[in-house]
């Protein structure tokens, strides 16, 4: 993801003999050395830096704190109770809209997505999903989501952030990941064909 000046991405870095998920920042023009922001995943660019989910220090399988990095230091936005066995499993941002997904260690419990406007000042709604993981995309009017590469609960949906109405976008086992444009309401929804190549339906939400 990018804010126009920096690129933020997640990758595994070698720490001793262990590969650790990390969030990294690079200058778009290549003028500076890359910076490791911290251990974690799911970077989402915002006007004042990047939001990202930090790994729990005692459990390397869960991200339990949402943090903001301003180019020099990180600070906590909020944290998940470490004994709940729930963690952050996705972060998205567009304009003044923020979305954070939460998944459980027990995949049978499904997942939830909280959506806010402002700097987490105004809650828009909560979304419950049967899939253990949500792969989403966001603009200032819509949040669209699916289950990624899962083979069950692979329906795709679009949530209108103003009306709170949900639109069904189809079913795509193995590639349930719709995408909405940030500058308009154009959408691209995948269509799977068994073991064949994926095709896409392109249209406009409204």
Task: Count every beta strand, where a strand is a DSSP E run of 2 or more residues.
Answer: 17
Overall geometric form: globular
Structural class: mainly beta
Radius of gyration over alpha carbons? Answer: 17 Å
Overall residue-averaged pLDDT value: 94
- Widest sheet, order of strands: 1-2-3-4-5-6
Q: How would a textbook summarize the main sheet?
A: 6 strands, antiparallel
Instruction: Point out poorly predicted stretches.
Output: none
Helix content: under 10%
As a percent range, the share of strand residues is over 45%
User: What is the terminal separation in angstroms?
Assistant: 26 Å
Tally of contiguous helical segments: 0
Q: Explain this structure to me?
A:
This protein is 0% helix and 60% strand. The protein has 206 residues and is mostly beta strands. The strands form four sheets. The protein has a six-stranded antiparallel beta sheet with strand order 1-2-3-4-5-6, with no helix packed on it. Strands 7-8-9-10 form a four-stranded antiparallel beta sheet, with no helix packed on it. A hairpin with a 7-residue loop joins strand 2 (18-27) and strand 3. It is globular.
Question: What would a concise description of this structure say?
Answer:
Helices cover 0% and strands 60% of the residues. By secondary structure, it is an all-beta fold. A six-stranded antiparallel beta sheet has the order 1-2-3-4-5-6, with no helix packed on it. Strands 7-8-9-10 form a four-stranded antiparallel beta sheet, with no helix packed on it.
């Amino acid at each position: 993801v990018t804010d126009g000046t920096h690129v933020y991405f997640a990758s595994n870095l070698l720490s001793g003999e262990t590969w650790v998920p990390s969030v990294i920042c690079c200058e778009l023009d290549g003028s500076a050395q890359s910076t490791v922001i911290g251990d974690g995943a799911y970077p989402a660019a915002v006007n004042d830096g990047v939001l990202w989910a930090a790994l729990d220090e005692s459990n390397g399988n869960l991200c339990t704190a949402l943090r903001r990095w301003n180019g020099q230091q990180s600070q906590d936005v909020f944290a998940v109770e470490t004994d709940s066995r729930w963690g952050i499993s996705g972060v998205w941002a567009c304009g003044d809209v923020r979305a954070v997904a939460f998944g459980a260690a027990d995949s049978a419990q499904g997942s939830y997505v909280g959506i806010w406007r402002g700097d987490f000042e105004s809650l828009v709604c909560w979304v419950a999903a049967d899939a253990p993981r949500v792969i989403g995309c966001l603009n200032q009017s819509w949040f669209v989501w699916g289950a990624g590469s899962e083979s069950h609960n692979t329906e795709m949906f679009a949530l209108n952030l103003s009306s709170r109405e949900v639109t069904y976008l189809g079913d795509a086992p193995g590639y349930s990941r719709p995408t909405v444009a940030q500058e308009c309401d154009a959408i691209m929804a995948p269509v799977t064909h068994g073991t064949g190549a994926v095709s896409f339906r392109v249209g406009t939400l409204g």
